[in-house]
Amino acid sequence: MNRPTSLAVRTTAVCLAVAGVMALVAAIVAVRLVATTSRDLTRQTLADQADVVATQLARSRLGALRITQTLRGQGVEVARRGATGAVTGTDRVAVLAARQAGIERATPRRPVSASTVVGWETLLVEGRAVDAQTSIALVRRVETAQGIGRRLVGNVVFALGVGLLVAAAAGWLLARRLSRPLRRTAAVAAAMRSGRRDLRVPPEGPLELVAVGESINELADALEHSEARQREFLLSVSHELRTPLTAVSGFAESLADGVVAGDEVPEVGRVIGREAARLDRLVSDLLDLARLGADDFRLDLAEVDLTALAAESAAVWRTRCAAAGVEFSADTPAHPVPVRTDPRRVRQVVDGLAENALRVTPPGAPLVLALRVERGTAVLEVRDGGPGLSEQDYRSAFERGVLHARYSATRPGGTGIGLALVHGLVTRLGGTIEAGPAEEGGARFTVRLPGAG
């Protein structure tokens, strides 16, 4: 595995690479530009010199030798074409270059200006007619781009070194500035991993880093809120567990010590049984709620007639409601409502909603179990005539422990997990559930299961 490198090292390396590429490109462009400019200037200078020499020789030939020597000192060779047409000169290469450039074609109105190659050398030729039979050619070797490049190598290397040093310093400073908020964010994340929830990332640095910091802060807020909710839920569950456990333990000690005897024993046994059943129901709900998030949560899907299932459930809850003085009614269709689902889980959903409704419905108020079909979707409703909920409570009704924490003092008997369990079951069945006000005056819980026939 390759060892990861720091942002500072990577940024510095990128800056160095960019500086090196820029220096190389600049050197190539500079060499070509200098070579082209040098060649143009050399040609213009040579043309001006040819004009001056031709004019002087046309007036007098006496200074021809001196002119030739002066030009040779400046790196310019002179070739002549005489009346016989032969091209002569002291430099053989210059003579060849003059011939290739066509010095014999030079006339007073049409000078010769050419670039020619002799061997491996590039030469500039400026030919001028002195008179009708004589002409001269000034020949100068052109420094190629390679030659200029060799002369520029030292300067380019120096400039490259300076540029790399500046790039390294700038890259390091930039990397430090960019990595500082990242290191701060990483430190906050590490503290969050160890359990801290009071730290936040300050909004500093570039826009992208600020966005990362804000995301970390939002995650910290969400974790703090979620953990607070979990603590409240655990406290609530522990209280709900402790209450029946205390009753069972107290009555069991009374039986063991002989405090309860005679005719009181059956009633104490019934109390212990009810509290044990309450414990069993609470533990079962907790286990089901924990299993909902597992991949191995099992659903036994089958073709189910919801009309028959609702009728079975209605028979049970009609009896329980009668015992509590609550008016129960069932509103179900006369025809079957087939749905492919898990009948045990659907019954668990209906029973959970009905038990929650019965707990808050006062005697004489209604409790309704309804079933209908809407556009291929089976709709199960449990409505009650209880105190209902506020608009905010309806939105958070299925969040674990929220309603229990809010109404435990005024509506005792709940565990805080019933509606959360129902929501999880409906979701795993592929359906949806929503809460809202009912026409009976209390709350309405609506379950929608797709695929109704």
TrEMBL record:
It holds the Pfam family HisKA. Its main location: membrane. It is an enzyme of class 2 (transferase). Residues 236-453 form the Histidine kinase domain. Residues 176-228 form the HAMP domain. It catalyses: ATP + protein L-histidine = ADP + protein N-phospho-L-histidine. Gene3D superfamilies: 1.10.287.130, 6.10.340.10, Histidine kinase-like ATPase, C-terminal domain (3.30.565.10). Keywords: Kinase, Membrane, Phosphoprotein, Transferase, Transmembrane, Transmembrane helix, Two-component regulatory system. Its EC number is 2.7.13.3. InterPro entries: HAMP_dom, HATPase_C_sf, HATPase_dom, His_kinase_dom, HisK_dim/P_dom, HisK_dim/P_sf, Sensor_HK_Regulatory, Sig_transdc_His_kin-like_C. The keyword Transmembrane applies. It comes from the Bacteria. One of its GO terms (molecular function) is phosphorelay sensor kinase activity. The chain crosses the membrane at residues 12-35, 156-175. GO terms for cellular component: plasma membrane. It is found in: Cell membrane. The keyword Isomerase does not apply. SUPFAM superfamilies: ATPase domain of HSP90 chaperone/DNA topoisomerase II/histidine kinase, Homodimeric domain of signal transducing histidine kinase. This is histidine kinase. The lineage of its organism: Bacteria, Bacillati, Actinomycetota, Actinomycetes, Pseudonocardiales.
